[in-house]
Design brief:
Distance between the termini of chain A: 36 Å
Largest sheet of chain A: 4 strands, mixed
Number of domains of chain A: 2
Number of helices of chain A: 8
Shape of chain A: globular
Structural class of chain A: alpha+beta
Oligomer: homodimer
Radius of gyration of chain A: 17 Å
């Protein structure tokens, strides 16, 4: 089942789906798309301009993390391609448990993205890539984003402190989505780890998963992540 | 099954869930929350501060349109409470069809919300309700939002023109989500109907559904929707 994933290295939604594919040990060819370019050929694939886009060899094209993750979650055979150990169920548990998993997926891919990751990427990456010349990050925006990030890290710490995984007893797509956003913020040097020990302990477990390896090896031209970014003992 | 829905009258996500409940003929007590107040008692219910929140009498609390809609969609018995005709399946069709429904739900509740409805509500409603005195809408923001709205209405017109319902042959939650956003924009006088005849014809069908009636009767203090807002022959 040769798949192609159109994605951007620091896009948290792309990262969350890369983590899913890696957990399922599904090989996918990665096509990189630069989100600030708004290329017509990419908009022809996905008129919303959002990433990631997953293409199957039969022509099926799935657009966006919501559509892709639910597609995989509702297909019991998706992961059954010779993997030695069973991959995690993306949206596990009872009917009520699943509502909790989705509440948190929405938290990270919705609220966290809007209030933190999207703004950080615009200020620190996209604006530095402008063909007309880089625009420096706006200190007012960065201040607001960092204030938002505190609330998000506190809440994530509360979840990590009171549960085995963020949504409950089992690893779920909520953990992958949260880890994707936090990994992008971490790449950009924005996570004050020492202030959030419970988040750190949970993220350490996420980072040690084999599925995480490829993400930690990624570099974006013109940027250098903090030394501890790919360190498992950060 | 007495339910309580915490919502705000012009919030498109709240509206989409009110439409779902009405299609399923499920009575719910509506509790109104004013989103610009950020009340502690509401944040205690849903720490993300987002609406709607659906509460069941057994204490189960579902937060956000994603969690609520998927909870209802995956429960085959949810609508089976004496309704004469079967309610629409929220996410109908084959595995592939369902991915298309979800792509469009994400389009409206994600992209359309971020680029249009959320900004319009802030500029035209929330900012006029400030305790420290109203702030007039920013003409630059309104201009950008209206440019975005054109793209969204063109795309919605393309879908309405080429399919029976937005996601395919069957009415789905994608139609309810789209109609919720468009109804809020329409309430605020922002839809140039004559330019988008296919959107108008589709919305006319949505508006004629009995489930739509309660939304069309809603008024927000200090605002007057255009005359045609609640008119079925607009």
């Amino acid at each position: 089942m040769p798949l192609r994933l159109t994605q951007y290295r620091l896009c948290p939604r792309s990262r969350s789906i890369r983590l899913v594919l890696a957990e399922y040990r599904i090989e996918a060819e990665l096509l990189e798309e630069l989100p600030w370019e708004w290329r017509q050929s990419f908009l022809a694939k996905n008129p919303s301009g959002e990433m990631p886009v997953l293409e199957f060899d039969n022509g099926l094209m799935l657009c966006g993390a919501y559509s892709i993750s639910e597609f995989i979650a509702e297909d019991p055979y998706f992961g059954a391609n010779g993997s030695a150990s069973a991959p995690p169920v993306l949206i596990p548990g009872t009917h009520e448990d699943r509502a909790e998993v989705r509440r948190l997926i929405d938290w990270y891919h919705g609220k966290f993205d809007r209030e933190v990751t999207r703004e950080l990427l615009i200020e620190k990456v996209y604006n530095s890539m402008r063909p007309s010349g880089p625009i420096a990050p706006d200190p007012g925006v960065l201040r607001a984003v960092r204030a938002n990030l505190k609330y998000h890290l506190s809440y994530t710490g509360y979840l990590a402190d009171t549960r085995r995984w963020l949504a409950g007893d089992d690893l779920s797509f909520a953990d992958l989505a949260a880890a994707a956003h936090i990994s992008t913020c971490d790449y950009l040097g924005e996570i004050p780890w020492t202030e959030y020990p419970a988040v750190k302990a949970w993220y350490q477990r996420m980072k040690s998963r084999p599925a995480f390896r490829a993400l930690l090896g990624d570099r974006v031209p013109g940027t250098v992540p903090p030394l501890a970014y790919s360190d498992l003992d950060f």
